[in-house]
Write a structure and sequence with these properties.
By secondary structure, the protein is of the alpha/beta class. The protein is built from 6 helices and 9 strands. Strands 1-2-3-4-5-6-7 form a 7-stranded parallel beta sheet, with helices on one face. A two-stranded antiparallel ribbon has the order 8-9. Strand 3, helix 3 and strand 4 form a beta-alpha-beta unit. The protein is globular, with a radius of gyration of 16 Å. The protein starts with a helix and ends with a helix.
Length: 202
């Protein structure tokens, strides 16, 4: 999200999280701070192989409540990040690790993040670090035995509603909506989002 009016309109839908991408190779990269930042939902900063210093700086500047790591970050990096956040009085900031999965073994390995992160975002594998706009086989997640709650991502759109309503997992925390609800990169179709949210919650 980058446009102040679009941010206000999406926030008014009652979303729980709103993302800000800090990755210069993404078409949704946030280069300048929007004139308005959401106050009624969590602010999530998405980072790809950024330095601890850069992440902490963005957390402070955007008052982020969540950090999503979308690159090749390791558990050791997470520990270093937590230490720096705590030193800055930002210990309440939550950390989410994005994991692309294409097999049950990859899903099972995700439990190595237990005790390191507060959430996992399962998504579709891509050649780079960006979102694919394509769904993956959610049945793979039946193999997940980790204790860390997870978000479901990967090309979720209106056509996914029946499957989403049928999906069950004790660690399922929420869903990530992005490309299927965009008018342009970083600009959400508010009416379409409203229709989806209403149908999903009904």
């Amino acid at each position: 999200m980058r446009d102040a009016d679009n941010i206000r309109d999406v926030e008014a839908l009652g979303v729980d999280f709103m993302g800000f991408i800090f990755y210069d190779k993404s078409p949704r990269n946030v280069e300048t701070k929007p004139d308005y930042l959401p106050e009624g939902c969590h602010r999530v900063g998405v980072f790809v192989n950024a330095t601890v210093e850069d992440i902490v700086s963005r957390v402070k500047d955007f008052c982020l409540t969540f950090v999503q790591l979308h690159g090749d970050e390791t558990p050791a990096f997470v520990l270093s990040l937590r230490k720096s956040l705590e030193a800055e009085g930002l210990a309440t900031v939550k950390i989410v690790r994005s994991i692309a999965v294409a097999s049950r073994s990859q899903v099972m390995k995700a439990q190595i993040w237990d005790g390191y992160v507060d959430g996992i975002l399962f998504e579709t594998p891509t050649a780079g670090y960006g979102g694919s706009g394509i769904s993956f086989d959610w049945s793979l997640l039946s193999s997940y035995r980790g204790k860390t709650p997870f978000f479901l991502a990967g090309g979720l759109g209106m056509e996914c509603l029946p499957e989403l309503k049928a999906f069950r997992h004790p660690r399922w925390l929420g869903i990530d909506l992005n490309s299927r609800f965009e008018i342009a990169p970083g600009v959400k179709d508010v009416e379409k989002l409203q229709q989806f949210i209403k149908a999903f919650k009904s």
